[in-house]
C-alpha cells in the first residue's frame, strides 16, 4: 500500500518572528494493508517553510534545510539511537484506526481519524520523551505539538 506522511511543526517564543513553521516529509516508509507502518526516522526531509498555512519555498536555503534536518536527527529525534518509528494497528473501523506508535523509544496508543484517504493526528513530543527544539536560551522554540498528515493511496 502506498502512503505519504508529512509532519508540520510550529514555532513559538519571543523570537518566533525570526523562525519558520515547517513542512517535513518522510521519504522512507513501508505500509501494509492493515496500516502497520515502519518509517526510517533518518529519512525526514525539510520540504519548505510554511507561512500562514501556505508553502513558502523561498524562505529557506538548501543550507538552512540541511542544518534543520541535521538538528532533527541529532538533537530532537536522536536517530542514531532510535532509527525507526513504528505504528502497529490494533483496531480499525471505517473512520478510525487505533494503534500503538513507537517513537523515540516510547510506545503510546494513538487514534487516527480517517477522512476519506487521509488522516491527521497531533502528537505531543514530550509524551514520547522528545524535547522540542529550542535555541537562543529559549527565545526561539518549536511548539511541543506537531501535526502529522497521512495520505493513503
Break the fold down into its secondary structure elements and pairings.
Elements: E1 3-9, E2 11-12, E3 21-26, E4 29-31, E5 37-40, E6 44-51, E7 54-56, H1 62-76, E8 84-92, E9 96-103, E10 106-115, E11 118-124, E12 134-135, E13 140-142, E14 145-152
Antiparallel strand pairs: 1-3, 1-14, 2-13, 3-6, 4-5, 5-8, 6-7, 8-9, 9-10, 10-11, 11-14, 12-13
How many DSSP H or I helices?
Answer: 1
> What is the helix fraction of residues, given as a range?
under 10%
Report the uncertain regions: none
- Share in β-strands: over 45%
* Biggest sheet statistics: 11 strands, antiparallel
Radius of gyration: 15 Å
Instruction: Kindly state the number of beta strands.
Output: 14
Q: Would you tell me the structural class of the helices and strands? A: mainly beta
Q: Given the C-alpha coordinates, what overall shape results?
A: globular
- Rounded mean pLDDT is 91
Termini gap = 7 Å
Number of domain units: 1
Element-level helix/strand string: EEEEEEEHEEEEEEE
